[in-house]
Amino acid sequence: MKRTTRFAALAGVAALALAACGQAPEDSGSEATGGAAESDFLPCIVSDAGGFDDKSFNQLSYEGLQAAAEGLGTDFKQVESQSESDYKGNVQSLVDQGCNTIVTVGFALSATTVESAKANPDVHYVIIDDAADADMDGKTDAENIKPLLYDTSQAAFLAGYLAAGYSADKSAKVGTFGGQPFPTVTIFMDGFKQGVDYYNQTKGTDVQVIGYEGGDKGSFTGGFEANETAKTTARNIIDQGVDVILPVGGPVYQSAIAAIQDSGRDVALVGVDADFYESDPSTQDYVLTSIEKRMDVSTEEAVTASGKGEFSAETYVGTLENGGVDIAPLHNFEDKVDPALMEEVDALKQQIVSGELEVTSYLAQ
Amino acid sequence: MTAVTTDVRPAPDAPVQPRTVATTSYKTPTILAVVSVLLAVLLLAQPHAGDARFALSSGADFFQIPVVVVPAMATAWVCVALMALLTAFAFLRARGKRRVPGWAAALFAVLGLVAFLAWAAAGSPRDLSVVGLISGAIALSIPIVYGALGGVIGERAGVVNIAIEGQLLAGAFTSALVGSITGSPWAGLLAAVVAGILVSLVLGVFAITYRVNQVIVGVVLNVLVIGLTSFLYSQLLVPNAETLNNTPRFERIGIPLLERIPIIGQALFNQTVVVYLMVVATFAVWYGLSRTRWGLRLRSVGEHPKAADTVGIKVEATRYRALIIAGGVAGIGGAFYTVVSIGQFGKEMTAGAGFIALAAVIFGKWDPVRAALAGLLFGFASNLQNILNVVGAPVPSQFMLMLPYLVTIFAVAGLVGKSRAPAASGEPYVKE
Question: What's the CATH code, domain B134-415?
Answer without folding.
Answer: 1.10.3470
